[in-house]
Every structure is written in structure tokens, then in C-alpha cells.
Amino acid sequence: MDGVPDGVPRVPEQRRPDSTPAPSEPSATPGAERPAETAALRFSVLGPVRAWRGDEPVTTGSPQQRALLAALLLREGRTATAAELIDALWGEEPPSQALAAVRTYASRLRKVLDPGGEARRSGGTAATAVLVSESGGYAVRDLAEEALDLTVAQDLATEAEKARSAGDLCHARETLRRALALWDGETLAAVPGPYAETQRVRLEEWRLQLVESRLDMDLEQGCHAEAVSELTALTAAHPLRERLRELLMLALYRSGRQAEALAVYADTRRLLADELGVDPRPGLSELQQRILQADPGLAEPSSPAPEPAAVPVRPAQLPATVPDFTGRCGFVRELGDILASAEGRVMAVSALAGIGGVGKTTLAVHVAHQARAAFPDGQLYVDLQGAGARAAEPETVLGSFLRALGTADSAIPDSLEERAALYRSVLAGRRVLVLLDNARDAAQVRPLLPGTDGCAALVTSRVRMLDLAGAHLIDLDVMSPDEALALFTKIVGEERVASERKAALDVVAACGFLPLAIRIAASRLAARRTWTVSVLAAKLADERRRLDELQAGDLAVKATFELGYGQLEPAQARAFRLLGLADGPDISLAAAAAVLDLPVEDTEDLLESLVDTSLLESAAPGRYRFHDLVRLYARACAERDELPPSERGSALSRLLDFYLASAAGVYAIERPGDRLVDHLEPTSYPGLRFDNRHAAQDWLYAEAICLLACVRQAAGRPETLPRAIDMLWAAHDLSESGANSKEYEATALALVGAARSHGLGRAEARALMTLVNVHHVSGRFERAEEEAERAIRLAQESDDLLPVCWARNARGIIALYQNRHADGEEHLSRAIEGFRALGDRPGVAAALCNLSRIHLATGRTQSAVALAREGIDIYDAMGNALRGANARYALGLALTQSGELHSAAERLQEALEVFRDSRQRLWEGMSLFRLAEVDLAARRAARAAANAEMALTVLRGIGGEWRRGNVLTVLGRALSGLGQTGRAHVCWQEAAGIYEELGSPEAAEVRALLSPVQAA
Questions:
Q1: Do the Cβ atoms of 114 and 130 come closer than 8 Å?
Q2: Taking Cα atoms as reference points, which of 309, 415, 323, 416 lies closest to residue 369?
Q3: Confidence of residue 350 (pLDDT cuts 50, 70, 90)
């Protein structure tokens, strides 16, 4: 932002007396080795003054002795006279024996820092001391480069400055974090004396400058919401520091909180006027004006200017490059650099692999034209027909190459080996580029490679040339959306695309950003002047017709894929067809094994062979994906070729079983003793087994998108719908994660509709329970109440008692939120009875904890505490840490109201750690909110504001507006306690607006908070 220094702050210089001598050379004999104990010494001043030898701490003595050590360390090897040290330790009023005390401290330090020094010196051995005496003073010398934490911090700050200047913000931020992590509390903690106090102020100022610089880079990287919490705490701790206020304003503005950003300015202006009698500095005032004007320059961090595109070189003997070549700048540079390095190397070989139609030949020809000047002796080209039924024979190609290089027909031998040898001899001493297009495999390519210095080869193939020794392998992917749109525009024309940009984006997306498909679609549109871009987009929107639409003249996407499919072995072809049936962006190896009904090892071999043919992509280790158009082609092949046809349904059923069994395993390991897993639909295909809770969580969140896609796909068939619903119920952690909440909600709605349309009452009741949880998490309590009531009725009709219990539990907590305490108590009491009848002890504990909150709301604090503790005892006895955190949350609320604030904070902190570890974002945010309430009650306004800000950040996109209003109310109270009334006013206004829109009774309470502010 304007007015902000770009560099990383350097440590402020400390004033040095003019008489201070420069460091002298060590007095040890040249070449003498440093003793081992000296080499291992380390010191810290960014916190308590401490010393270590290796990993063992070294005693640094009394506070005055540590003050002497600190004074010497901070002089960076310069000598401090005795008078200077006396002044550093005692200032203007030293004790009468100050000089003797300094000498005593120095002697003691020398003994602990160099315990073997006296013995070596008395024995005549040359040694380099750490603490030396000279010129009537002392100095610390000959330390290793990283022996002092301050020196390390300075080096890291310098490294960060260089990285930032070079545009590498990620490295600069991380380096600054490492530098700041070296501080361990207050600098020179508990060290007495005026010198230490001066250095504390100097180094604390530098630390704050580093923090500001790191936060500035956080904002440049787009981490606005995350920075607000830290900046709120920092401005509370340093209220007069305008740079922090400036960063807070920018972070709030970029987080969509413009009113709060302006309130920060108003609070700052008032504070500066009251405390110092001055106005804010110009940079802060300018930022306020830019926020008022909604300056577009503030909205997003600036991005580096793009590098200039390489100027293409005109082709000469190679096939003509396409005039509308677009994008691929990174690959063009990479390949160009490799070809440019051919001189001086035996041979430069680059092998491009990728799916048919991805643009391998186009890129290779374009790069070859650009590199033509570097190969003045010629460029050779051949289409090896590797994707066809009859690939070109190497000896035939060699004959053609030899003729092109001037060899007479009579001099060309017959055998492959002799032709290859002659070919290499003819190329000796020449600089020739060979472009081998559309190769079948490495065996076809090897005889055609030049073998001499200065030559280079470019190879394209659908197969990855892993066995081509020395080759630089490049996997060519589809175009980026911007590149795809640019190619489409070049072919169709700027005028037609400009007026229908959205439709054009739909077209290139339907083409899967595949260059061949985009070229075909654009060519069809360019040849039909009466069509609009929207007409073409509508034609490509139908997935079943899309491949048929993507053909023009002799170009066809389907024909390109057919060539690759036709070369597959039967087992590969089956895997290709069946894997294409599964929805989802990719598929794991274990899930693919379920689809194919094969062992994991055999499945991996098949999938890797498909990757090598470029019909499948390796998205990450153990994960695979199709290009969108290839998936459509694979599904068409499955409908056409898969026999018997029932195998398609069986493959998807196995996948559903795998996901359900695995999700049930995750649920069971996270919630020991919970009976839900005993009430799920049975599966015939096994799931994964997990060693620990973290591995189970990692799997669930990694598979979330694919799992939900499988659920939606299974909803279309009555025979798989009940299993799909149970899988969604078992995976309900996804609804509270934030990252997958919207997809989970859309899936739950689809399942409720599917169950209702098929007349499956039991399945609908369970689907409704997933929807109840979604509405509860989102703060839509009326809708949650309606769905829970219907779920109870349907579940009772089908004698499915577990959903009845959970629905009553949900209705109990909803009634609490709606202040219907008698209804809530009745629902929860009936839920407890039902859970006990089922032998579901965790269910009983959940309802007890919710009943605790009803008791708390009705003034029965002691019984609320007892009920929550009863819930904790049940969960702890079963080893259920996650549900135990919910119980501790309930106990924390009860203890807060009973005035036991320290115990309340401990319970809530325990819950917070479990929720954070379990990726329960909703409950993590709510625990932070409740901790803020405890802090307010304990009159810790700054900590309350920081916790409330963190709660807002964590709950972003989850929890609903009602919960956001609650957090804003508490944040406003905390800010008011800090004297930031303007920002508090903004928070309360936003909260009041939320409550009024929802019709919540809390609106009146917040309006009452606003009244005195408005009156003032």
C-alpha cells in the first residue's frame, strides 16, 4: 500500500562511544584450534540472558552478572572499558566497590564459559578465550556465527529483505516468522541496569517493526481475515502505534468490514488527540480517504507484472506453426532453455507426453521454430504414427533422414543397426535439431536419436518415456482458463466473444480446456456466422452429446481418444471403462480397487499403465483422475462395451460400500462406544482400517468431495439410496468443517428429495436427520425444528428408534436457542429415556450435556454443573475425546455463570484443543467465543477481543448469522473496554442488524448497548 516501506526493518543501531576501540585481532597463536567446549557455546538475549554448551545449559549467575554478559554480547566483539560497564550496570549511582564487583563477575563468567582455559594456558597451550581482558576492559570474542540469537535474527531479517526485494514473499514471510520465533518473552528479561533498559527498548522496537513487516506481507498474500485477530491484540497492547492501526484498517477493509476499518481511524484520531494532542500521520489519513472512496487499489494485493512473452522466431524447414499459438509460456521457456544448452552436451533430449489433443505437436513445432537459429545445420521432422495401427519403422525413418542430410541412396545400408551408425556419423560435428512426433514408445525412438555434441531431439508421445535414458520428461496438461479463452477468441474473433464472455467461458470449460476440443468448437462457430456463442454453449451443455458436437471436418475429439483406447489390453480397457463411471474430481487407489474388485497392488499396476498412456492422470501419489472429456468417452465405452451391463451398477455399488464402511470406521474411531455404527446399512465390500484418529480424519477430509459425489450418484437408485443416506449420516463431521458444508447441505437436500420421491419413509427420516444437523449448524433453527419433527414421525412409523432419539436431542437444543426452555427439557428428557433403552451411553451423555444448558438458562446453575460433569464421566470412561470436548464445553458455560472463571477457562481451553485437533471448525469457533466471554467477565478486555476476533475468523462461512451476531456483541463489549468505542459501535450495529433480520430477542439487548453511544 502507498506510504508503506517495502523493505524488512533492520535492527536499530546502538550508540557507541567514540573512544570505544575497534575489536582487535585474537591474541591466540595463529592456527591454534578452538577448544571443543568454546565452539559449542550459544547465547540468548532475546528473552532471559542464557547460555548453553551444546544442549547443556550454562549457569550465568546473578542478575548483575547476567547484565555484564549481556552488555558484552551486545557490543558484538568490541571492548567495553570498566567505566562503561559500571555505567551499564548501575548508572549514575554505582556502589563503592563497583570496579571490584565487575572484575569478580568477569572472572566468574570466564570460569563457566571456558572451564578448561586456565589449565591450557598454565600448561603453555595456545587457546582462544571467549571472554578476554584488554585495555582495561573486557570483550566477548571468537563466537561461532550463529552463537547469539540476536545475530541469527539479524541474518534472517536480512535474508527476508533480500527475498522480498526479489519478489519471493512466501520465503520472506517464513523467514521473518523464524526470526520472530527466536524471541522468548521480554528481551533481556529480569536484567537490571540502565544499559539493559535502553537495549530492551531498542530491540522491542525492532521486533515490532519486524512484526509489522511480516503482517504487511501477510496482507500482500491475501491473509486479511487471519491478520485481523493478531492486529486487534497488537493495537490493544500498543494503542499509539499508528502503523499497526493502519494495517488493521486495511485488513478489516479487505475482509469486507469497511465500517469497522473507518471506526479504527476514528478511535485512533480520538486517542492521539486525547493522549498526545496530535492528528494521525498523513499515511493513516490518506488510507481513511481511500477506504471512503472504495479505492480499487486497496481491494486486492498488487500482483507482479507478467514477464514479457518470448518473441517467436520464423520457421524455415519445420512444419508450419499455427498462427494462433497461445499460452504455454512456461513450457516454451523450459524447452527453449534445454535446446539452448545443446552446445557442449552430448545430446539434449526432451520428451513431451500427454493426452491426445492436448497440443503436444503444436507446442513442439512452435518451440522448434523458435530454436531454429541455434541449429544452423538443419532441423529434421517425422510423424512416427505411434497412435495408429501401423507405427513407422525406425529403419524407414533413418533412410529418410539420411537422404535429407545429403547421403546418396546407394550409400544407405539395409539394416537398422548400420543405418543408425551411419546416421550418427553423418551428424558428427553438426548442430541439428530432430523433432520426433507422435512416438509409440522409447524403443521406436532410440535409433533415431543423435549421439553427438551440439544436437538435440524433441519427442512427443501419448506414452511417458520413462525408459528413455537421459531424457527431460514433460507432462503436458490442458490449458489454463485464460489461455483457453485466448485461443478461442483468436479463432472466433474478439468482437463475437467480447459481447458473450460468460458463454465463451462456458464453451472452453465444456471443452475441458483441451486445445483440440477448443479449436474444433471455435472453428465450428467461426464457420457459422448466424450462431452466437450462447448457441454453441447450449449444444455443448448436454454431456451425452458433447463428444459428437466436438468434430469439424477431419478433426474429432472422439476419434483422437479412440486411437488410444484401441491400443489398450483387455484388463486396461475394463479399468478405463469402469473408473470413468465414478463421479468426483479424482479417485484414490483404494477406492479404485473397490470399483474394479481387484487387489490394491494389481489395481495400481493397471492405473499406472493407464497414466503412461496418458488416458489417466496421476493427480497426486495414490490418486488418479480423468480429463473431463476422457471421462465422457470412458462412460460411452462402458455403455457400449461393458458386458454384462449389470457390471456397471455392481462397480458403483462396491464403491458405495467401500466409502460407507470406511466412513463408519472413521466415526467409530472418533466416537468410541457410539451406537450409530451398529444401526447403519450392511455392506458387502470392506472399507479401510485406521490405526489412529488422525489417520481416520485425514482420510475423511481428503475424500470429502469424492465421498459426497458418490452419495449423490447413488441417490438415483432406490437399491443404493439407504446406504447413501447412512454414509452421509456417518460423515456428518463434514457439515461442521466449514470447507465442505455447502456441498454436504446440497447432498442432504438431494437425498431427502430422492427418499421422498421413492416413498422410502425410513430412509427419508435418516436423511432428514442429516438436514436437521445442517440447519442447526447454519443457525436456521425454525427449519431444523420442522425437519426434526417430521423425522420423528417417519422414524416411529418405520420403528427406527435411533433417529427418534437424535431428533429429540436436536429439538431440545433448538428449543434452548429459541428460549422455549420447558419444551427443551421435555424433548431432552425423552431423548435420555430413548438412548437408555437402546443402550446408547454416548447418546445419553449428549442429551445430559444439552439438558445442563437448559438448567443453566433457567437459573439452576449447580444442577447444570452436575449434569455436565455426569456427561464428562460417561465420555471419559469410554475414551470418547471428541464428545468429551462437547461435554467440557457445556461445563465451561456452567462454571462461567457460577463465577468459577479460572476453572471455566481451563475446561473451555481443553475443549478448544480437542476441537482444533479434530478439525471441528464450528466448535473451535464457539469455544473461542466462550473463552472471550470468560475473559470479559474476568476484565481481560484485550484477550477477550483477540479471542472474539479469532472466533469470527474460524466461523467464517459456518455457524450462521445468529452465532456471528453473538460473537460481534462480545467483540463490541471487549473493544469498548479497550476504549475503542467507534469500532465497538460498528460491531453492535452489525449485530443488531443481524438479530433484527432474524427476529431474535437479542436485538433489544444490543440496541440498549448502542443507546449511550448514540447519546454521546
A1: yes
A2: 323
A3: confident
State the residue for C-alpha cell 470429502. 704
pLDDT 10s digits, 461-479: 888 888 888 788 888 888 8
Q: Is the pLDDT reported for residue 868 higher than 90?
A: yes
Half-sphere exposure of 415 (CA within 13 A, CB side): 3
Tell me the pLDDT band of 864, cut-offs 50, 70 and 90: very high
Gap between the Cα atoms of 849 and 907, Å rounded: 14
192 exposure class (CB count in 10 Å sphere: 0-12, 13-18, 19+)? middle
**Helices 841-857 & 821-838, crossing angle to 10 degrees?**
160
Three-state secondary structure readout of 312-381: CCCCCCCCCCCCCCCCCHHHHHHHHHHHHCCCCCCCEEEEEECCCCCCHHHHHHHHHHHCHHHCCCCEEE
880 and 872 in contact (C-beta within 8 Å)?
Answer: no
pLDDT (tens digit, 9 = 90+) per residue, 913-969?
Answer: 999 998 888 999 999 999 999 999 999 999 999 999 999 999 988 888 999 999 999
Beta-carbon contacts of 384 under 8 Å, excluding residues fewer than 6 positions away, are 391, 392, 397, 436, 437, 438, 439, 440, 444, 445
The residues near 397 (Cβ < 8 Å, ≥ 6 apart) are 382, 384, 448
What local confidence, expressed as pLDDT, does residue 3 receive?
Answer: 39
Q: Which pTM was predicted?
A: 0.67
Calculated CA dihedral for residues 789, 792, 795, 799, nearest 10 degrees: -150
* Average pLDDT along the chain: 86
Cα torsion through 381, 384, 388, 393, rounded to 10:
150
- The letter for the amino acid at 941 is A
Q: Which helix (H) or strand (E) holds 56?
A: strand 56-58
Shortest CA distance to 77 belongs to which of 140, 148, 143, 149? Answer: 140
Surface-to-core class of residue 139, CB atoms within 10 Å of its CB (0-12 exposed, 13-18 middle, 19+ buried): buried
B/e letters for 118-138, b = 16+ CB within 10 Å, e = fewer, are eeeeeeeeebbbbbbeeeebb
Q: What is the pLDDT of residue 283?
A: 87
Q: Closest by alpha carbon to 511, among 542, 544, 490, 540?
A: 540
Residue 452 contacts residue 446 (beta carbons within 8 Å):
no
CB within 8 Å of 591: residues ≥ 6 apart: 582, 655, 658, 659, 703, 706
Residues in the chain: 1016
* 593 confidence band (pLDDT: 50, 70, 90): very high
Q: 443: which 3 cell numbers?
A: 524403443
Residue 344 has pLDDT above 60, yes or no: no
Higher pLDDT, 567 or 771: 771
Q: Which of 743, 752, 671 is nearest to 707 (CA)?
A: 743
